[in-house]
Amino acid sequence: xxxxxxxxxxQSFWPTFSSVILAEEAYAFDADMTFEQSYQLWCEAPLKTxxxxxxxxxxxxxxxxxxxxxxxxxxxxxxxMVSDQARGKGIARQxxxxxxxxxxxxxxxxxxxxxxxxxxxxxVKLWQKLGFDIIGTIPKAYKHPRIGYVDSFVMYKxxx
Length: 160
Known about the structure:
The chain is α+β, with helices and mostly antiparallel strands and 160 residues long. It has helices at residues 7-23, 35-44, 91-105, 121-129; strands at 2-4, 48-54, 57-66, 75-82, 110-117, 133-144, 148-158. It has a single domain (2-114), classed as Gcn5-related N-acetyltransferase (GNAT) (Aminopeptidase). The longest helix has 17 residues, at 7-23.
């Protein structure tokens, strides 16, 4: 089930969220962000934030927000996280499909991911299967903790 996030949901997902940002493999977030800073960034700053819940366990979460303002306000941006125990079960796919429906309901016409780390091959392939194109490559945009500087992709999909 996908539904709007509650403070308790984020609290229960915090160990996953914290481990993802500490790994520094997928998100350009400060590894030393506090719970409060993370909650503000993920749950309060976006337009909406959702969770994927199964058997009362939060297995994933995503946010949706405008990517820009003014003449580009028709493009949204999303971020997704899935717990280790839920990877490979189609949860990211379900959340991305849900986010596209929500985006259209909110009046967005396109979705853009600004920085998909090129070494996050599972995510890149999933987004491509869901119709997103790589429209740009930012050379050496991400400092991976084991590999060093790697490229990031800008990915885009027209939703209508």
